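During the second year of the project, the team shifted from modelling isolated chains to modelling whole assemblies. The rationale, set out in the original proposal, was that interfaces cannot be judged from single-chain predictions alone. As a representative example for this report, we include one of the complexes processed in the last quarter. Its constituent sequences, exactly as entered into the pipeline, are reproduced here:
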Amino acid sequence: MTLTMFLLGALFVGLIVTLMAVAGSAGGSGLAMLVGIIGLGIAFYQWWSSDKVAMRAMRAREVSPEEAPELHGMIDRLCALADMPKPRVGVADMDIPNAFATGRSPDRAVVCVTTGILRKLDAEELEGVLAHELSHVAHRDVLVMTVASSAGIVAGMITQSAQYGGLHLLSGGRRDNNNSALPAYLIALLVSLVVYAISFLLTRLLSRYRELCADRAGAYLTMKPQALASALQKITGEMAAIPQRDLRATKAMNAFFIAPAISGASLKTLSSTHPSLEQRLEQLARIQVELGRSH
Amino acid sequence: MGFWSSILGRSKQAPAKLDALFLVPSAAITLQTAMGLSPTGTGSVCFRGAGGAAFAQVQQEIVSLLNDNPDAPDVEVSEDRFGFTWLVVRRDPDDIAGLCTDLHAVNAILEESGFGTGLLCSMVPFTGADGRRVGLVYLYKQGTFYPFAPKGAEQRDNLTELSVRDQLRGELPMETDLQRWLAVWGAPGL
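Output from the structure prediction step:
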């Protein structure tokens, strides 16, 4: 995982250096820089207000300990065990059984579950899922994934700027300067495309690593890997059965879910945000053996 | 937990801090003199054991290890609705120092058996002449104490809790974050 994170960092530096070089050689590419800075601003905003954005996107509302005593009791205990600050707790009124954690830091985190998951899972399984989400909070996954995807966001914005008349602007607006500016812009565009593609695959790879990390940390926290395993089986089985159309609405939130709400077909292993169920169950089985052995 | 290990997703389980339990006897005297609360003679350790049949056997072994050893205290086992196991030890109500030694012995065995990271809290209950009950709860991971005073059906007597905190502030490390004051409804002995 360290290698993946390093590669993503290198990719970002590479993109910025290329853009600077291109911009330096031809004044016309200032547009690319501007777009890049806006892209970074968007990434920063997404991270900074991730709790509000995600809660609103999922139509979740915060619940008090009086409204959901069992849920709060579980989270209280898990936080005391893990020695971490207690996050706020949210409930989203939707039938998809799922849970997510978000927020810019452990002090500002929200752990949110859907009413579907509350109905579907028993107490032990729900605790396993909550421990998984709390591990996301402890690992600062929102921060890590936002930083990791910023290269992709910037590259994506530059690529898209071509669509919004970047090329036209250059070739039409500056006829005198045409010869040097146009190729420079094309280079920036090409680099961005390549960076976008690589960054897409790397962030997905990183996301899968971090899901496995959260599974592992969560299983050690509750010491009941089999509870998380049966929760995952119930959730992923259920999600595959629900029609695709309802699920597409939640696509943007996928990276923070405990199980992805989309079941893709081809290229799935390379581009999915979550590891396969088999992979996750295999790891949990290993932890189970280890917990049984250590005494 | 270090920043880097958390960023890299390699968070470690927090270890339990056991020694502060020995501060309880002097705090018990303060509670007795200042608030008229006396120990009931029980104390309990709450921990999370691993799931599965293998663990059930290990837990049985721990209990028989404690109960068969004349030097170790006898314990009773109960399970709460959050899936945590409580081990209860009993002593003469006047011998609070002995009770703390017993609790420490239970902790030491649990830690030896690999459940050190699963220790949640320990509780020493007190009662007043007026029938009020207060549990002094020790959080192993934070190494802090807090009072828990149940009143009726799942209600807490916050006034008593806060005054206990103020009484004991000089003697025990009290938990400053009120969100960490877990409600331990139905804790054995309370």
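Residues 39 and 126 of chain B are 4 Å apart (CA to CA). Chain B has a mean pLDDT of 87.
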